[in-house]
Amino acid sequence: MFIDRAEFLTAEPLDRLISFYNETLQFPIVDEGLSGRVTFQAGYSRLTFVSVESAENDPYYHFAFNIPSNKLDEAKAWISRHVQLGVEAGEDVSYSALWNSHSVYFADPAGNILELIARHTMDNEVDRPFDAKQDVLNISEIGLPAHHVRSAVDALEALGIPTYKTRDDSFNPIGDDEGLFIIRTVGGRWHFTNKTAESFPILADIRGLGELHLYESGQQLVIEQN
């Protein structure tokens, strides 16, 4: 599943996000309009933030970026010079035997939970030092909290997106190594953080499916496809 673009809401001033994503993560700005939005290039994917007014529960999301399968250690050394890494059980690297992957977690100024993930199932090794401008390959995961995980998964599978690895009623990824939606129960804790999963509107442009507008209404996932 190729995630060509993801669009998230934010109550954080856009200048702080521009500083973080453009200057720290080195994502080029491809569109900085006057309509309260900014878009960055992250590998072949585009990452857009749309400004909204601050509220009692400001929007935040979880999303991940694929990096070359042999570059986790170097990527960790690079990102840890700029941000504090998430820690779980005393470890700052997450290893999944089921997924055959290593990853690190960190936050942006808006409280979004970011992840750099090296999937050892992918043939994307590089024989040079890690370079953020080249080696952040794409948006590879979008967290999609739902009150009813099974029905959300069923709705996305009906579009042709398959479950990844395992089916589960509280945490169910769908897609493939290239791109995933991470469907998890609203109120559950995001891995390597102390933040709970909350549902906020998402736009995801999926290659072959078009734009999917995803949001919850009446505790059910709504999918509007353009």
How would you describe this protein?
- By secondary structure, the protein is mainly beta.
- The chain has one domain (56-225): Roll (2,3-Dihydroxybiphenyl 1,2-Dioxygenase, domain 1), CATH 3.10.180.10.
- The protein is built from 4 helices and 14 strands.
- The protein has helices spanning 14-24, 72-79, 132-135, 149-157; strands at 3-10, 29-32, 37-42, 45-51, 62-67, 94-96, 101-107, 113-119, 138-146, 171-175, 180-185, 202-206, 210-217, 220-225.
- The strands form 2 sheets. It has a 7-stranded mixed sheet, with helices on one face. Strands 6-7-8-5-9-11-10 form a 7-stranded mixed sheet, covered by helices on one side.
- The mean pLDDT is 96.
CATH topology: 2,3-Dihydroxybiphenyl 1,2-Dioxygenase, domain 1
Fourth-level CATH superfamily: 2,3-Dihydroxybiphenyl 1,2-Dioxygenase, domain 1
Main pleated sheet: 7 strands, mixed
Secondary-structure element sequence?
EHEEEEHEEEHEHEEEEE
Query: What is the count of structural domains?
Result: 1
CATH C-level label: Alpha Beta
Total count of strands: 14
CATH architecture: Roll
Overall, the morphology is: globular
Strand content: 35-45%
* Rg, Å, rounded: 16 Å
